[in-house]
Specification:
4% of the residues lie in helices and 40% in strands. The protein is mainly beta and 376 residues long. The chain is globular, with a radius of gyration of 22 Å.
Length: 376
């Protein structure tokens, strides 16, 4: 039997700003932020989810909230829902988020008289223009949340400058700790800020093979599993999806040879699989090329397979990408058919590697849907 989650849309029209559409997740979800700075407020004795939604609406920086109907607790976050992760929680918790439409930003860079009552654009008194609010940047369509350590960028405006991040070689980098990252082989004990709300102590690199807290630039925002390789993930005919949100999968793996190949096999008869932000880290070093498909093509990847219709390709659209403007979308269909993209990287036997990717399922759930991710 075909089943699916139902996402409820709430449209608030209060005498303050323009009408806004919120989407609600199913109950049993909680929002996990990309960084603790994104938590704006925590309010108790909030009797209804409508009240929590209203609080988010009235707080100009709020884009996502979660609500616990048992504890009557409402938390507001400045990060959009796609900057963090929905995680399983008690059946009384639910997540809501604002749907950011391009039409909300029609007056970006217009004279400031056009955004006097706008919730999404700042009335900049210096430039007298409608600009992006604090902690956001213009990505060509909307004011997106600024990014954290290790995430892709075009210029400094893309990065959280309030956290001393700057755009270096198209990556948001903590300039205060960049020298530390570059000198890990000679440093004995150093504390480094990570993308998660924790601080990590890096010990002498001779201990790397037995230490699991060495990842300083790509700490996964989801539960990590250990693996010996082979099949990392196999999905056959799923019965539900949280689309348009992505699910994060993350693994630690100890290399046994001089190289390894990470492969993604997809078949989807009614719709398509979407994957983005694929990373393989050894310490602070990202080993994959074009893991976010921001080149606009499959540079760095090898594609094989036969499809009746629609081969997998890099697709443009920051509304659908996990981050950035591009993602991989595979609509390959047909009996016995399937698409595979793979990338081989060098490894050192005995060293620990951190593998992470984000997967979404569009137009679930019917016919044949297969996702098979392997590390060999």
């Amino acid at each position: 039997m075909k089943s699916s989650f139902i996402f409820l849309n709430l449209i608030l029209m209060i005498n303050a700003f323009e009408p806004i559409t919120f989407t609600l997740s199913p109950f049993g979800n909680q929002f996990q932020v990309a960084h603790t700075v994104e938590l704006l407020t925590t309010s108790c004795n909030i009797l209804t989810i409508i009240r929590c939604t209203t609080l988010c609406y009235r707080h100009i920086q709020c884009r996502t909230f979660d609500y616990d109907s048992t504890l009557k607790k409402c938390r507001l976050f400045e990060g959009s829902v796609d900057t963090g992760t929905l995680i399983s929680a008690s059946s009384s918790t639910i997540v809501g988020w604002i749907i950011l439409k391009q039409s909300l930003y029609n007056f970006y860079n217009a004279t400031n008289n056009n955004c006097m009552n706008s919730r999404f654009l700042d009335n900049n008194i210096v430039s007298n223009l409608c600009q992006c609010p604090i902690h956001t940047f213009w990505n060509g369509s909307v004011c997106a949340n600024q990014k954290y350590v290790g995430q892709g960028c075009v210029n400094d405006n893309c990065c959280r400058t309030d956290l001393n991040l700057t755009c270096i070689s198209s990556i948001c980098t903590d300039i205060n700790n960049s020298s530390t990252v570059e000198s890990l082989t000679t440093t004995t004990t150093t504390t480094v800020d990570t993308t998660e709300p924790v601080r990590t102590t890096i010990h002498d690199t001779t201990q790397a093979s037995i230490t699991t807290d060495i990842y300083t630039t790509d700490v996964p925002r989801c539960i990590q599993q250990s693996t010996t390789g082979g099949t990392l993930l196999y999905i056959l005919n799923p019965t539900s999806t949280i689309y348009p949100l992505y699910t994060c999968y993350s693994y630690t793996w100890i290399a046994t040879g001089a190289s390894a190949t990470l492969s993604f096999f997809f078949r989807h008869d009614p719709g398509g699989w979407m994957v983005d932000d694929i990373t393989v880290y050894r310490g602070p070093t990202q080993l994959l090329v074009n893991g976010g498909f921001e080149t606009g093509n499959l540079t760095g990847w090898i594609r094989t397979g036969i499809c009746n219709l629609n081969i997998g390709e890099a697709y443009f659209g920051n509304t659908y990408a996990k981050s950035g403007d591009w993602y991989y979308y595979d609509l390959c269909a047909g009996d016995g058919n399937g698409d595979t993209i793979s990338q081989t990287f060098s490894t050192i036997p005995g060293e620990i590697y951190n593998i992470t990717f984000w997967l979404a399922n569009y137009d679930c759930c019917d016919e044949t849907e297969i996702a098979n991710i392997t590390l060999i």
